[in-house]
Amino acid sequence: MDINLIGCLAEYRFAVMAMEREISVSFPLLDSSKYDCITDSKKGLKKVQIKSVSSEGEKVRCYTRNSKGESYKVEDVDIFVIWVKAHNGFYIFENDGKTNSIIVSRTNKNSKKFNNFALL
Fold first, then answer.
1. N or C: which end of the chain has fewer CB atoms below 10 A?
2. Which domain holds residue 102?
3. Pseudo-torsion of CA 24, 20, 116, 48, nearest 10°?
4. Residue 120 CB coordination number (10 Å)
5. Which residues contact 97 (CB under 8 A, 6 or more apart)?
6. For position 106, which CATH number holds?
C-alpha cells in the first residue's frame, strides 16, 4: 500500500474515533501545514500531528520528526497521535519538543498512551 494512502487512512481513522468521543476535528486546507488536524473539545484546541507505523511486533519504534528530520516545535504541534497497525489503535501523547522517536508497546511504559483520547 502506498505510504500516502497509509497516512491518509490513519488521519481519517483518527478523526472518526475522535468524533465518536465527541471531539471535533478540523483539517487544514494546505498539505504543507505543520500539523495534520486540530481537535476541539472541553480541553480546548489542540494541534495534532498524526504518524502511522505498519511494522509488525509488540514493540514498535515511530519517528516523530518533521520532513527536515527535526523535532516538532511545541508551538507548532501540541499532540502526537501514532497509528500502529499491528496494535489496531493509536498512541496519543504530548509533544515535549525534544522527542525524535518513541518506542510504543502495550506492555511498556507507553502502554498508558494507547487510545488515550482523554488527553484531547
1. N
2. 3-119
3. -30
4. 21
5. 71, 72, 73, 74
6. 3.40.1350.10
Number of domains forming the structure of the chain = 1
CB–CB of 34/77 below 8 Å?
yes
Q: Name the burial class of residue 30, with classes exposed (0-12), middle (13-18) and buried (19+) by CB atoms within 10 angstroms of its CB.
A: exposed
Instruction: Name the residue type at position 56.
Output: E
* Joined grid coordinates for residue 113: 498512551
Model confidence pLDDT, tens digit, residues 20-35: 999 999 999 998 899 9
Question: What does each C-alpha distance from 51 to 42, 43, 110 come to in angstroms?
Answer: 24, 22, 16
Looking only at the bridges linking them, the beta strands covering 101-104 and 60-63 are antiparallel
pTM metric for this prediction: 0.92
**For residue 60, what pLDDT is reported?**
92
C-alpha to C-alpha distance for 68 and 92, rounded to whole angstroms: 22
Counting every residue written for the chain, the total comes to 120
Residues of the chain above pLDDT 90, percent: 77
